Amino acid sequence: xxxxxxxxxxxxxxxxxxxxxxxxxxxxxxxxxxxxxxxxxxxxxxxxxxxxxxxxxxxxxxxxxxxxxxxxxxxxxxxxxxxxxxxxxxxxxxxxxxxxxxxxxxxxxxxxxxxxxxxxxxxxxxxxxxxxxxxxxxxxxxxxxxxxxxxxxxxxxxxxxxxxxxxxxxxxxxxxxxxxxxxxxxxxxxxxxxxxxxxxxxxxxxxxxxxxxxxxxxxxxxxxxxxxxxxxxxxxxxxxxxxxxxxxxxxxxxxxxxxxxxxxxxxxxxxxxxxxxxxxxxxxxxxxxxxxxxxxxxxxxxxxxxxxxxxxxxxxxxxxxxxxxxxxxxxxxxxxxxxxxxxxxxxxxxxxxxxxxxxxxxxxxxxxxxxxxxxxxxxxxxxxxxxxxxxxxxxxxxxxxxxxxxxxxxxxxxxxxxxxxxxxxxxxxxxxxxxxxxxxxxxxxxxxxxxxxxxxxxxxxxxxxxxxxxxxxxxxxxxxxxxxxxxxxxxxxxxxxxxxxxxxxxxxxxxxxxxxxxxxxxxxxxxxxxxxxxxxxxxxxxxxxxxxxxxxxxxxxxxxxxxxxxxxxxxxxxxxxxxxxxxxxxxxxxxxxxxxxxxxxxxxxxxxxxxxxxxxxxxxxxxxxxxxxxxxxxxxxxxxxxxxxxxxxxxxxxxxxxxxxxxxxxxxxxxxxxxxxxxxxxxxxxxxxx
Length: 690
Prior knowledge:
- Helix content is 32%, strand content 26%.
């Protein structure tokens, strides 16, 4: 609802400028027929109900077509600004807007709250006006029950004080009882003119528009002036089409009915609705306008109408522009970042804009979320090197992105606030963001892993840049000072990531989400288990492969009322074994080890086994596994997913089963290890003697 409310606000602000110009033009057309100024209000209606328009270099609008007065992401901006096209207004209003608190944890912009409250008040206002209008009509209809039909759609009622029209599909004319023949004649002519011109429908639609923009006083003024022009033009038509001179009796009738209260609810059309003094003066002074005045007036209205309906054309776009529906970028969590590291294009206190071959992205730092993305391949702008290299420029305010393939004479302009994409002839951006410097001037890239080639320098001396410790998209991070923002998270954008469990593995009282990404299972690539915090940001991950060197297992262990991660890796190669377990929690994404143990041995008989030690190690592991559930395991080259019982993964030293003839069915694990040790040592000595 907040987004709809912001859209209505933007249309209302744009229309306010149009209303002021229409009022000015209306004064200039004082001597022209009133139907001409009446027609001019259609331009205001267009701006109040249509959120878009066409471009024209003769536009009279003061602002760029690629922006809206109030950006849709203003509620997330650290320093919210408007763009009305009038610098003085923009500066004053922007300085008056509330900004988020800078204290830790205060990430919500007060505008979010105000906008939400405002949207509810807006809806309540609409409901109140519509209820008022409906109730007024119902009361009026009840008062008209005694009205008598005299001919066609004309009714008389003895409790009426003024003539009017009521009805939408089949409008009726209601007259007071006792009108003389002359008076009845021109009053009927007046009301029938309304019906013929569909004024009863126009006024109802106008009232609905007013109800939608009820908070804007200029819209109410426009409604009142439009209604006045409607009546004045109708009066003039009656005077023009009546053979005899009826100015004086017509004016007397207006005066006699003027004591009746006016109805301002979009229905009905009363004979005396509007400025009575002005109407009487206009009737008495009416003269048939000269042709040249009519022609000039029509030219002025058409020119002004086109100028106010059209948006200003951007510089250098004299040819027809092509409009595209922006396509959202798609990516895989484990997808490679590409030959070239992603490029940082823009950074402020509120947003980060960056791109790679996999798309262009806008990340909001306040809500820790990507708010816009654009598939670059769909417009041929995914190349980061060679003749097809695409230059990316961002405007100083961070709202407009210009994408220019070097080999093309055209460019693509992407508006972030509007989410619009336009192809037009290339023209160098005038107010280009110039805060980029070489990252090598900021950090020692040799010690910082993979970094973007450029960084952003801020006024407070801080720097921002892109960084990743591996080449997966999921590892891409924006770093500013001592803060790091994971730009991609598995929950929001990876459709193949499967949620398997929720657990509190960092002890903060909030559940973390545990996912398994199975996107590369058919490519013999490691399956990645990821843990995301409550905000959806990945805080830890590990890959598990079905190849021998990638075997591993992870369990969720509950011990003493707390939840831990149990990483158990029983590795063996050519008979040499390294068995390790680690029981740990997470602390801001780092492993905080609670308990661990290590066991190594050789089953080839080259050295004595230690059955008591090996048995104790197995008992220790099994005690933990007894209190655990499986998350993932690839031990033995097979994939196992949780959540499931960990019992089948109890450590029993499965290699003992290769020589079942050595053991008695009553032997425990330690006895089996002793017998196997004797057998292995003996066979190894025999082999050495040979």
